[in-house]
Amino acid sequence: MKTREPALSTPNPVHEVLSVANLPPFLMEPLQAAYTVHQRLHETDPAAFAQVAPRIAAIAASGESKVGAALMDQLPALKIISVMGVGYDGIDVAAAQARGIVVTHTPGVLNDDVADLAIALMLALSRQIARADRFVRAGDWANGPLRLGRKVSGARLGVVGMGRIGQAIAHRAAAFDMRIGYTARTPKTGLPHAYWPTPAELATHSDFLVVITPGGAATRKLIDAEVLRALGPQGCVINVARGSVIDESALVAALQAGTIAGAALDVFEDEPNVPQALREMDNVVLTPHIGSATAQTRQAMADLAFGNLDAKLNGRPLLSPVPECQ
Ligand code: 8YV
């Protein structure tokens, strides 16, 4: 008797997924509906993980996840690492490529949110929004006014990294009549803004230095003591990129010494640990890596992350591979 062909919707047994992050329910639910998902099994139960490892065809990760060659080597059926995030500096892309594994990310859909947050942090720092809120709540208003803030409109903005999000930040800053300069590996054609070849030169010509360059080895500690000195005692730094891009010890020292005026930081070297020195400073605004953290944008990122993973496992073209895998 002829055996029946499996129905098209029958799940393929090698379509098992390892989640290496605490993914939101709106990504986990579609993944679990389509695949068997092992949540951080490699960390929680290595023996059980060894059993399922040969069947894992995909890794679902976040922008902060770290996936190195050692993990890839345990997953002979691995085809794709799908990152829910634009940054993929924690993924060893060269190791993935060497093993024929594609890496995808979620560019584009978060530009608005990250740019909005960069502007919000710049305003929060210069107009003292967090400090003013604490001042009113503490009942200090009755004792006199809050000290004066710093004007943003018309000031000089330096953008470190003029990619998609950098351009979205510049677009918003133009509405504040800011004078915009930037640094990047090479000048971008068609942009009206002043180009400076190095962060130090840009900092010399900036009141607010916004960092929005990719993380990873190429930009590690790009913003160092020299750049902070160039920014000067009236200058402020805003980081919505990766903590690794700023030398955090040099930043703390510069803030303590008054080498720069203030900092607004959404990202840190060792998240979620934020140096006590920064937490104690009054000229610093701190947020917990919320650049893309709106319901609308996270949903769009989840849809794209699922779409990439599902496309790869079902033989359809990828939606957004990282540049190295295009
Ligand atoms: C998120 C991010 O923190 O996109 C990135 O690179 O850092 C963020 O948007 C995270 O990846 C959400 O999963």
Structure, explained:
The protein has 326 residues and is of the alpha/beta class. 35% of the residues lie in helices and 15% in strands. The protein has 13 helices and twelve strands. The strands form two sheets. A seven-stranded parallel β-sheet has the order 8-7-6-9-10-11-12. A five-stranded parallel β-sheet has the order 2-1-3-4-5. Helix 1 runs parallel beside helix 13. The termini are far apart. Bound molecules: 2-keto-D-gluconic acid. The site of 2-keto-D-gluconic acid (8YV) has 11 residues, from loops.
State the share of residues found in helices, binned by percent: 25-40%
Bound compounds? 2-keto-D-gluconic acid
Number of helices: 13
Evaluate the radius of gyration. Answer: 23 Å
Taken in chain order, the helices and strands follow as: EHEHHEHEHEHHEHEEHEHEHEHEH
- Topology, number of strands: 12
**What's the end-to-end separation, in Å?**
46 Å
Beta-strand level of the residues, as a percent range? Answer: 15-25%
Overall, the morphology is elongated
Strand arrangement in the largest pleated sheet:
8-7-6-9-10-11-12
- Can you tell me the residue ranges where pLDDT is under 50 for at least 5 consecutive residues? 1-11
- Mean pLDDT, all residues: 95
By secondary-structure content and strand pairing, the structural class works out as alpha/beta
Largest sheet, if any?
7 strands, parallel
